[in-house]
Specification:
two-stranded antiparallel sheet; elongated
C-alpha cells in the first residue's frame, strides 16, 4: 500500500491539496484438491486534487477525483492429479478481467466573506464505468467452460445545484435544488430535480 498527501499554498489565500492511495495484492499457487494453476492480481486506487482560491467576492473550490478497482485472474493449464479412483481433474478457474472506475469533477462558489451570507452554487460531472469479461459467475471453482460473459457499461451524470441557509434569530433552515441529466444510455431518467 502507498498513501500520500501534499498541501501547497496558492497566492496569499489559496491552497492546493493532492492526496492519493494505491493498493495492490497478488497471489499465485494452489489450494490443495480444490484449485490449481491460477494467478490473481487485484487492487484499488484513489486520487483527489482540490484547489481553493479567492475570486473577488466569492471563494472557488474546484475538486477533481477518481477511484478505481481492478481484478484479474490468470490461467496456466488444467492440472491433473492422481486419485484413488483414477485420474481426476483439479479445477482451474477460467481467466477473468473486471474493474470499476469512478471519476468526478465538482466546482462550487461560496461567499468569500462568510458571515450571514450562507449560500453556495456549483456544478459537477461524474462518470462511472464497469467492465467484466470471463465465465459466468459461480460460487465455486469449476473446470474451464466455454461460456463467456462480457459487460461494459458506463454512466455520465452532469449536474447543477444551489443551496441557501436562512436564519431567524436562533432558528435556521437550509434548502437547495439539484438538477441532474444522466446520459441517455443509462437506465435513469433523462433529467431529475
Amino acid at each position: 500500500d502507498v498513501a500520500g498527501r501534499v498541501d501547497l499554498p496558492v497566492g496569499s489565500a489559496g491552497a492546493l491539496t493532492v492526496s492519493g492511495l494505491w493498493e495492490r495484492d497478488g497471489v499465485r499457487g494452489n489450494v490443495r484438491d480444490i484449485l490449481r494453476n491460477n494467478t490473481g492480481a487485484w487492487g484499488n486506487g484513489v486520487l483527489q486534487t482540490t484547489l481553493m482560491l479567492p475570486l473577488g467576492p466569492v471563494f472557488l473550490r474546484e475538486a477533481l477525483g477518481g477511484s478505481g478497482f481492478s481484478g484479474n485472474v490468470g490461467l496456466h493449464t488444467v492440472a491433473l492429479a492422481a486419485s484413488p479412483t483414477g485420474t481426476q481433474a483439479i479445477p482451474t478457474s477460467a481467466p477473468t478481467s473486471n474493474g470499476i472506475t469512478y471519476l468526478a469533477s465538482r466546482t462550487s462558489l461560496v461567499p468569500a466573506g462568510g458571515g450571514d451570507e450562507d449560500w453556495a452554487v456549483g456544478w459537477d460531472v461524474s462518470m462511472q464505468r464497469q467492465h467484466y469479461r470471463g465465465p459466468l459467475p459461480r460460487p465455486y471453482p469449476s473446470a474451464i467452460l466455454f461460456d463467456t460473459l462480457e459487460l461494459n457499461a458506463s454512466l455520465v451524470v452532469p449536474a447543477a445545484w444551489g443551496e441557501r441557509r436562512f436564519r431567524w434569530g436562533a432558528w435556521q433552515a437550509e434548502g437547495g435544488i439539484r438538477l441532474e441529466a444522466p446520459n441517455h444510455g443509462s437506465d435513469a431518467g433523462r433529467a431529475a430535480i
